[in-house]
Structures are given as C-alpha cells and as structure tokens.
Design goal:
The chain has helices spanning about 40-55, 95-100, 180-195, 210-220, 245-255, 350-375, 415-420, 425-435; strands at about 5-10, 15, 25, 35-40, 75, 80-85, 90, 110-115, 125-135, 140-145, 150-155, 160, 165, 200-205, 225-230, 260, 265-270, 275-280, 285-290, 290-295, 300, 335-340, 380-385, 390-395, 400-405, 410. It is an alpha/beta fold. The protein folds into 2 domains: about 35-170 and about 300-390, FAD/NAD(P)-binding domain (3-Layer(bba) Sandwich), CATH 3.50.50; about 185-295, FAD/NAD(P)-binding domain, CATH 3.50.50.60. Helix 1 (about 40-55) packs parallel to helix 6 (about 350-375). This is FAD/NAD(P)-binding domain-containing protein.
Length: about 450
C-alpha cells in the first residue's frame, strides 16, 4: 500500500486504510511464515515473547507501554515460526555486569540459558547458538556460523528483526559466549581484584557503566583504593540528564569512598610486573594494580548488514516519521527488516527497559504485517515506538540516584537501592516483565 495513504490514529499508531471483512480467529493459510530474530538480549527476547503471545491469543507482556488495541482479539497466525540466533547460549543481564565480575555470589545468577526457560521450549520456536555473518535481502536468506558444530548454515526468513546490541570491552562486558566458561572467566577477574587490593584499581570513563563499576568495587572491597578518571569537568557529561543529577552522582560516588579525578586525559602504561601507571598530562601518575576502561566507546554489532542500512556511527537507521522500527522507507527492505534495542539510531539513553519496549513494538508491527499478508483486506495498523523523556536509576555502590524524567525531581538514598533494584540489579523484575519467571536450575 502506498505510504501516503496512512492515517494518524492518535499518538501510537498509523493505519493504512483497507476494506475489513469478518474472519475466523484462526487463519488457516497453509503457508509457513518465518520470523528470524538476530540477538536475544532484552529487545530480542521481548520480541520473541510478544510474537508468541500474539500467536497464542494471550495478553502481551509489555501491553502497558503502548496501545496495541488493533491486536486485541485479532486473528491468530498459526503457521508462524520463530527462530532466535544469538552469539550466547543464554541471556546475560548486562546491567548486572559490575556485580557479576566483582561479587562471586552474583557471577552465575546473571546468566540464564535459553534452553532452561520452559516457555521457550515449544515446537514453533527454535533457538540457535550462532553468529550471523551475512544477509541476502534479495532472497531473504541469512548465513550464520552454528557454534554447536562450527559449520556454516543458512536460514530463510519472511521478516527479520536485528537486536544485536553494541559491543564493549572486557570487563565491562562479557567475553564468554556460553554458560560453562563464564563463571571461570568472571572468577578470574574477581581473583585479579583480590590480588591488587594494596595498589588499588583505576576506572577510566564517566558514563553509567564506569560509575556503577567504581561504586560496586568500593562497596565490595571497602579497603581498596578505587579511582575514577574522566576527561570532562563533570560526570555523565554526554548524557541528556539534569545538571543536578550529574552533580549528585559525583557527590554520592565520593561519599562511597571513590576518588574522582576530572578534566584529565590519562595515558596507561603497562609495567613488566603486571601493574600499571596511569599518567596525566601534568606528569602526575597513579600506580594501579588494575585499570578498567569503561569509556563510552562502543561498537554496534552491525558488520553483517549492508552499509545502506547503517548510519555513520554504525547504528541501524529506522523510520523516524512513523517510528515503527522498520528500515528507512526508501530502503529496499522497508517493512521486511526491523531493528530494536541499542543497535538502533534512536535519541534516548540506552536502557534495558527501553530495549524491551522497542522489541515489543517491532514484533507487534511484524505480526500486523503477517495479518495483512494472510488477508490483504485487513487494514494495516502500525504501532509507534514511544519516545520517553530521559530517565535513569543509577546504582552507586550502596546508594542509588533516580531521575524519572517526569518533573517530580531527583531522588537518592540507600533506602531506595532495594526498592529500585532488588538484590540482583532488577534481573528478576526483567524476567518477570517478560513472563520468564520459570527457569530450570
């Protein structure tokens, strides 16, 4: 249908007019539809579970964050098949990386293997442990390396969702790609920190990751000297947050016992004994046992995509007018390929909750397109992805600071830590929101 026929339907949807006819609640087409999801963290899992619940005629997991009224009581596409391809064999709570790499008690709790979620064990859902290398949009086929046998395989798709996220360096992100080596990998980092307690640790980078890492280090190793070094004159300098929030984060981090050095562009020299000199331009230096690079430099995981899909920063460009999370309207694969999560060129702080909402919206729009494929007389209604005001809950050691973007103000305090994050930096809440509470230990 021509794009200029769309009609605005409130703030959440675009409708493409057509003539509706009565349908049974189950579509009986013999054609199988294959939706492939590449990357299964917050956005990818959210998308998969949204498609599953729509197919089953059940309430959407994240229905409170959108309209979705056009999908209430809709017909069910029974021949829908879902394939998830992920470089890891499970979902790792990346928000919990500082805890996983600092506290042995949390190392394994942050990783949940896909095969142990009963909800994902069903005939119409396949989870592949592999790395996508190329896609052929003309023939709608992607190629991936199956990590189970290290062989190249191909997978056809009708619709593709890319939610591969961004890559960061160890130890602020994972190295392991399966559960078995992960505890050993994380434990080696815990052992390294114990070995350097006398000299201390320097964290370079002022973003949420760097602040949370420095705060967690001091909380779990109270006698260790922890220093955070940043090149600008205030913390969180690149984040669209109020100055008061940034100042308070600085004060709370210092209150936890972390030394904060601003306006420094340090160089790091590795010494023969395995320790480091962190040098400033004025000649001062810190002798540290370990240096953690937590700068905001991260690399989007888009190397397998055509360059026409990708912005100069390496992120996937999506339609900004309809906000349906499909590729740009002038792109050949408009409405065949969608993107969600951190991989998207999107004007928001990159958060797990935002990625989950994006995954749900993208999946709902894929399902809407499937309905029109089954019955072209059905009107196509596309859900908009909401754009939220900047908001964040930042864990700073034993403290927390919260800005919800609503104008209520900024809250902070140690009593808010349990309320905001629980004992696992909100992982249990994430899984509950997705309907993945059941897990076979």
């Amino acid at each position: 249908m021509a794009a200029d026929n769309r009609q605005s339907n409130g703030n959440h949807q675009f409708e493409y007019p057509s003539v509706r006819r009565a349908l049974d609640h189950t579509l009986l087409s013999s054609k199988e539809y294959h939706v492939v999801i590449v990357g299964a963290s917050y956005a990818g899992l959210s998308a998969a579970l949204t498609l599953m619940t729509l197919k089953d005629g059940q309430p959407l997991p994240l229905r409170d964050y959108g309209d979705y009224s056009h999908l209430h009581g809709t017909t069910q596409v029974k021949n829908l098949r879902i394939t998830i391809i992920d470089e890891r064999d499970g979902c790792f709570h990346t928000v919990g990386t500082p805890l996983a790499h600092i506290s042995p008690a949390h190392t394994q709790r942050m990783w949940r293997q896909y095969k142990r979620f009963p909800k994902l064990r069903r005939p119409d859902v396949k989870v592949k442990h592999g790395t996508v290398t190329t896609i052929d949009p003309n023939n709608r086929i992607l190629t991936y390396i199956d990590k189970c046998n290290n062989l190249e395989s191909q997978k056809p798709y009708d619709y593709l969702l890319v939610s591969t996220g961004i890559r960061r360096k160890w130890p602020v992100a994972l190295r392991a790609q399966s559960l078995i080596p992960h505890p050993r990998d994380a434990s080696s980092h815990v052992d390294d920190m114990a070995a350097v307690e006398k000299l201390g640790i320097v964290v370079i980078g002022d973003g949420p990751v760097g602040i949370e890492f420095a705060g967690s280090l001091k909380a779990y190793h109270s006698s260790m000297r922890v220093t955070l070094v940043h090149s600008w004159d205030r913390l969180l300098s690149s984040e669209p947050l109020p100055d008061k929030f940034k100042t308070l984060s600085y004060e709370l981090l210092q209150g936890e016992g972390v030394r904060v050095i601003l306006n420094e562009h340090p160089s790091v020299e590795a010494l023969p004994d395995g320790t480091y000199y962190v040098k400033s331009k004025n000649g001062d230096h810190i002798h540290a046992g370990l240096v953690i690079i937590a700068t905001s430099q991260s690399k989007p995981s888009t190397s397998f995509l055509p360059k026409s899909y990708i912005s100069g920063n390496g992120f996937i460009m999506v339609d900004s007018k309809q906000m349906a999370l499909t590729l740009l309207e002038q792109t050949k694969d408009y409405r065949r390929i969608f993107a969600a999560g951190d991989i998207v060129e999107w004007p928001e702080i990159k958060l797990g909750c935002s990625a989950m909402i994006m995954g749900s919206v993208a999946a709902a729009n894929i399902y809407a397109l499937l309905l029109t494929e089954e019955d072209p007389s059905q009107p196509l209604v596309m859900e908009r992805c909401p754009q939220h005001q900047p908001k964040i809950a930042l864990s700073i050691g034993t403290n927390v600071v919260i800005y919800d973007g609503s104008g209520i103000g900024i809250q902070h305090g140690k009593d808010l830590a349990e309320l905001s994050f629980g004992s696992d930096l909100s992982y249990s809440r994430v899984l509950s929101a997705l309907g993945l509470e059941e897990y076979d230990e």
